[in-house]
Amino acid sequence: MKKLFSILSVACLMLFPSCNDWLNVTPQGQIEAEDLYETTKGCNSVVGGIYYTLSGSNLFGQTLSFGLIDILAQYYDLSTHTDHQYYRASLYDYEDTNITGTFGTVWQNLYQAITQCNAFIYYSDPYKENISNYDLLLGEVYGLRALAHMELFEIFGPVIHTTADLQKPAVAYRTEYNNISQGFDTGEVVLQKAAEDLNRALELLADDPIRDPNVGRDGDLNNSVLDYQDVLNYRGARMNYFCALGLMARLEMLRQNKDAAYTYATRVMEETDGIISLMETQDMTGSENSRIYNFAKEMLGSFYVNNLYDITDTYFGMGGGITSIDQSAMVIDEDRHSDLISRIYAPSGAVDGSANDMRTLWFSWNQENSNYDFMKYKQAEPRQGLPEAYFPEISIMRLSEIYYIACEAQIGRDNTLALEYLNTVRTSRRLEPLSGGPYTDEQMMTYLVNDARKDFIGEGRMFFMYKRLFRDFTNMRGQTVTANDNIFVLPIPDDEYEYANIERPGTGASQN
To answer: Is pLDDT above 60 for 317?
Structure first.
């Protein structure tokens, strides 16, 4: 794979852009890759480099969270903004050079992160006895390698209509640190290898401090500045035990194994009890500087993004000076806010929506800027009774998704139980539980998807849910986007097909 070769070559010399000052004191500002693995500090920095890649704006730091993936899920109407950078994407015109370039970068950077994971596994093994908390670091790396491959599968892999489609070529699952060309694996192989990586992660993370209620998501077990280890601080903003366990539930849904997905989902609920929990009304209705707008207490794992608020202030126009017609921003003006409320959170006549939904508080009118701040990604003021304003983090997975998985796994089997899981999320959002029934399978699925759409905004998950369910959905003009393979399968860079010796499939079909 041409692009992957260049990534591997560079990685052999420098695994990641330097983001730690101590690296800069070495001669010529560089350090041989092998030397990084001889010390605990070096290994912490190498793993930090993997997070640095994955949390970049070209991946989870924007494109795969509140950026382009949310455009594909039709959270915003761009019909009157034809010069917007994402306008053609909103029509699923995957031949547009802006779109092919963006997803070419996504492909390249995800494989860069995978290369970094493979390098860590390869180089660190000889020194593992000398590295403090090596199991935690290695467990994170296996989990991150699985996550990166799962994201590649969800973006570029085929639609899985039946389990037979898992035999179609998807992407390459790379586990070796080399520059040898590798063809595409089938979806079945990709997901099986991801499961193996996640199970390995769970073994290594068995003693993860996050499992201790006295440590939880945001505890810091460091007691020395000189021996400070990133891996011991704020386990919730890393690939941890709970996150790996939750990803197993997501993975089993991808390979249409609802029984296994349900088992993992209920394990997450049981094992996070007293440590990670769904939101409560007071978390969003108390004093302004005590609200948890990013729902951090629900996050099973996340990426710390140092410049997150700079990016989101610009993208959503929260820093001022940007209008709703900006070509690169997604300002939530009055029209877009009206669309969100009337079509997602409180649709007219819908029994499952209400303006009382506390998720509507994510959108707060900013008189100075004359638009709505997206509070999910707005830097908070210092919080009353809490140590600091909440962390700048992008969720990898939240507990609400676990409840959605449990609900979906029971639809068609025990709709009463499925409704209980859905109502648990709804009541945590200040909504009345759905009552009456019994509901049909389609009614239950509609209620589930509608609530997920409310919840996942800004996190890049909704488009993949539509794809996995192969489900029609509506845009902000009330028009139906008809499910088809061309919409849901993003274009793999052309030269990757050449090196994998696979014929390039048809391109995306525009929607009007």
So the answer is: yes
Alpha-carbon gap, residue 387 to 393, rounded angstroms: 16
Q: Mean of the per-residue pLDDT values for the chain?
A: 90
- Our measurement of the distance from residue 403's CA atom to the centroid of its chain's CA atoms, rounded to an integer in Å, reads 17
Q: What is the DSSP string of 268-307?
A: HHHHTTTTS----THHHHS-GGG--TT-GGGEEEEEE-TT
345: DSSP letter: I
Q: Note whether 333 and 371 are within 8 A (CB).
A: yes
Convert the pLDDT of each residue in 216-244 to its tens digit.
999 999 998 889 999 999 999 999 999 99
Q: Are 297 and 283 in contact (CB under 8 A)?
A: yes
- Four-residue CA torsion sign, 333, 336, 338, 344: negative
The partner residues of 394 in beta bridges, in order of sequence, read 303
H helix and E strand count, the chain: 18, 6
Handedness of CA 377, 379, 385, 386 (dihedral sign): positive
The percentage of the chain sitting over the pLDDT mark of 90, rounded to a whole number, equals: 81
For residue 171, give Cα distances in angstroms to 53, 112, 166, 308, 355: 20, 14, 12, 30, 42
Task: Write out the CATH class of domain 2-322+329-500.
Answer: mainly alpha
Question: Assign residue 437 a region: left if phi > 0, alpha if psi is -120 to 50, beta otherwise?
Answer: left
CA 408, 413, 419, 424 dihedral sign is: negative
Question: pLDDT category, 323, cuts 50, 70, 90?
Answer: confident
pLDDT at res. 504: 67
**Residue 220 in 3-state DSSP?**
strand
Sign (positive/negative) of CA torsion 431, 437, 441, 442?
Answer: negative
What's the confidence (pLDDT) of residue 500? 64
pLDDT digit string (tens) for 269-288? Answer: 999 999 999 999 999 988 88
